[in-house]
Please model this.
Amino acid sequence: MSETMKAAVLYGVEVLRYEDRAKPTLQSPDECLVKIGACGICGSDVHFYRHAKIGQFVVTSPMSLGHESAGTVVEVGPAVKNLKVGDRVAIEPGVPCRKCEFCRSGRYNLCPDVVFLACPPYDGAFAEYLAWPSDYLFKLPDNVSLEEGAMVEPFSVALHAARRAGVAAGHWVAVCGAGPIGLCAIMAARAHGATRIIVSDLVDSRLQLARKLGATHTVNLSHQNMREAVAEVTAGRGVDIVLECSGAIPAVHDAVEIVKQGGTVQLVGNITAEMPQIPIQRMVERELTVSGLFRYANCYPASLELISAGLVNVKALITHRYPLSETPTAIKWVDENKDKVIKAIIEP
Ligand SMILES: [Zn+2]
Ligand SMILES: [Zn+2]
Model:
């Protein structure tokens, strides 16, 4: 008889059960068994809870949620060389095939055969244990907590965005949206040497946190105009780079106008509108680079280093903590109190 563990499992629209599941076992010699210590609630977990699907990804059989996780190694396979029992690790949730064109060129986030936590049909990390390949586990420095280890996941999205956009020393950057990813984008831009960081949102408390994390100017869109604010801060020149983290169409319109001629608009937020109207001719005549983004690649080591060195404060984003048994109520509460929550963490 196999051993069991507790997990928060999604059965369909708004049916999330805290229940017993089979405890995972090592499936290959290079895997580790990790006891999960912290797992963040992401917008995608909330979306799966409400709709049982995201785009083409549909939950057709029971699936545990959660992909922003960290934990402690409790068992290592015979081929594991980089970790030992007792090590604390951040878990990179996407394991690619390692063989395709994209994997071999280093852009493994684009691998068509990636196994990603809590993306159907694969189970997630709102559970007590996870068996995972050792090369997608990253040892936490002693001064990095499990909670911070879980925050490496959202921060890596922002780091990947700053890298792709080419944020460099002395750059002026605008960040649209001060949710978890936007707040991480501020810190990623600052870590790359951006000197003016203008941040927009609709919620004052988020903008206050944005300032604490490195925003030099903030714009509350409920009564201020982003285009006017950027024109003022940059004396009409525009910013070098926009990191668009809101997914809101009006913000995309703003981005195309507040970036300098020849600048880069890095799209980060998911656009949910199916066929949005966007000003393509303005992109053409202003010779903009408009860049897409999907998750991240090769970001975990640098993210951990920045957190450990104290250059990035992901802890500041954590506003709520819940035990694993309360995952169903936690996800519901987070969804209904978006203005109060930045990041909630499940701690099994
Ligand atoms: Zn996430
Ligand atoms: Zn691949």
User: Anything to note?
Assistant: The mean pLDDT is 97. Residues 146-165 form the longest helix (20 residues).
